[in-house]
């Protein structure tokens, strides 16, 4: 029987005996850090995403004509984004375009490398980067490069990071076309977007390329709240051999060879060379073993999330107070928008905050995805930004709340969330 006195958390990982057995297998093997499990996880992940593979606008439409997909396991999606940008040669004086409506990781990795983040607004009816806003931002930077004086003066346009918010794919066809026109590299922040295929104009379809495999590189997250988890961890994907080689070296101190076999192979040489000042970003076997189990049940976990989302949609879609979450995607988040929530820019306190507090008092965990980065003190002050500079991002922030959606939620728990939302 459901214990109604127990709070319902916003998120909870779904693990069981198989994950426990995988951890015990690694513990008993005597090898805990990066090794055979991580290598197997990479191969299995690549195999999963190579199923019926295709790329938009590709001259080689047959799956067999595509370059192989390199998957490199890392200790977080943040690390993966950092490695991808570093491999592309991003550095001081470079501009990287990204949405303000994202988690801080997307922008902080740009600053790690001394480059500048250029924030782009989201669409009016979307949580994802607006291609028209992207083109306008890139055009302004090019104008600055051609002698026009503005806040972009002196920066080189180098890359764009589209973020698939909540697992709903961006309009990658439009974004890639813009990137191609201006010579920008594309690094997909697919932290939320496993497993989902990207349709031509955004949203997911039964066909089409997998989100995260479309740009020069893509990065997934396996954080505890994500659609599959290793506790902490991530995966970098690329079809470019040059990027794969650089990322492989840089994720492990810049050492020119695989480290783990120096200790396990009696015929391996002890000698190695450091060819660059790399990072400590490798994924240990202990976590990779959990990831292999989770990968094997990825579609089952997605189905559980979809089932919860359908019940939420049915309960909220005809209510005047709400705008329901975007359809489809990997269902990492269920974002509910409040109509007429108030606008702090005009001195009206947001009803969204009161809504969250009342849900909390009823034992319902929630979150907000996201607080736009142009509102954060560091970026606001560095770039001289105001809330209204990215109006859609700010508006979505004031009206959005994320509800619990995680595999393993009971029917009674879903009922409790729905009843609490409707009562508030």
Protein model, in words:
- The strands form two sheets. A seven-stranded mixed sheet has the order 1-7-6-5-4-2-3, with helices on both faces.
- Helix content is 37%, strand content 11%.
- Helix 5 runs parallel beside helix 6.
- Strand 2 (94-99), helix 4 (105-112) and strand 3 form a beta-alpha-beta unit.
- It is an alpha/beta fold and 424 residues long.
- The two termini are 25 Å apart.
Rounded to the nearest angstrom, the radius of gyration is 22 Å
**Largest sheet, if any?**
7 strands, mixed
- H-E order: HHEHEHEHEHEEEHHHHEEHHHEH
How helix-rich are the residues, as a percent range?
25-40%
Strand arrangement in the largest pleated sheet: 1-7-6-5-4-2-3
Structure characteristics:
single chain, 424 residues, alpha/beta, seven-stranded mixed β-sheet, three-stranded antiparallel β-sheet, 10 strands
């Amino acid at each position: 029987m459901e214990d109604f006195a127990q709070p319902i958390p916003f998120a909870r990982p779904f693990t069981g005996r198989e994950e426990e057995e995988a951890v015990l297998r690694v513990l008993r093997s005597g090898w805990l850090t990066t090794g055979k499990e991580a290598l197997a996880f990479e191969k299995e992940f690549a195999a999963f995403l190579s199923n019926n593979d295709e790329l938009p606008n590709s001259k080689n439409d047959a799956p067999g004509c595509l370059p192989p997909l390199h998957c490199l396991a890392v200790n977080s999606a943040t690390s993966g984004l950092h490695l991808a940008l570093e491999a592309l040669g991003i550095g001081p004086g470079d501009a990287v375009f990204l949405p303000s409506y994202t988690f801080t990781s997307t922008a902080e990795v740009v600053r790690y490398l001394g480059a500048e983040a250029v924030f782009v607004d989201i669409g009016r009816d979307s949580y994802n980067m607006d291609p028209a806003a992207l083109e306008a931002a890139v055009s302004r930077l090019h104008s600055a490069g051609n002698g026009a004086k503005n806040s972009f003066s002196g920066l080189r346009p180098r890359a764009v990071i589209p973020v698939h918010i909540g697992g709903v794919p961006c309009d990658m066809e439009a974004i890639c076309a813009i990137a191609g026109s201006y010579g920008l590299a594309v690094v997909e922040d697919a932290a939320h977007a496993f497993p989902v295929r990207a349709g031509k104009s955004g949203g997911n379809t039964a066909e089409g390329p997998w989100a995260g495999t479309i740009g020069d590189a893509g990065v997934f997250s396996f954080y505890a709240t994500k659609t599959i988890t290793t506790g902490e961890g991530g995966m970098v994907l690329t079809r470019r051999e040059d990027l794969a080689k650089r990322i492989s070296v840089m994720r492990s101190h810049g050492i020119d060879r695989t480290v783990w076999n120096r200790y396990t192979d009696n015929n391996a040489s002890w000698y190695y060379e450091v060819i660059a000042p790399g990072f400590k970003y490798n994924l240990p076997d202990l976590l990779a073993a959990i990831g292999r189990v989770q990968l094997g049940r990825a579609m089952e976990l997605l189905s559980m999330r979809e089932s919860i989302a359908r019940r939420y949609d049915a309960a909220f879609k005809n209510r005047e107070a709400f705008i329901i979450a975007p359809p489809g995607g990997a269902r990492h988040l269920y974002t509910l928008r409040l109509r007429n929530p108030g606008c702090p820019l005009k001195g009206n306190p947001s009803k969204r905050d009161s809504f969250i507090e009342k849900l909390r008092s009823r034992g319902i965990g929630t979150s907000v995805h996201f607080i736009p980065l142009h509102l954060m003190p560091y970026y606001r002050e560095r770039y001289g930004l105001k809330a209204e500079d990215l109006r859609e991002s700010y508006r979505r922030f004031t009206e959005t709340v994320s509800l619990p959606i995680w595999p393993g939620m009971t029917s009674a728990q879903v009922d409790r969330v729905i009843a609490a939302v409707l009562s508030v």
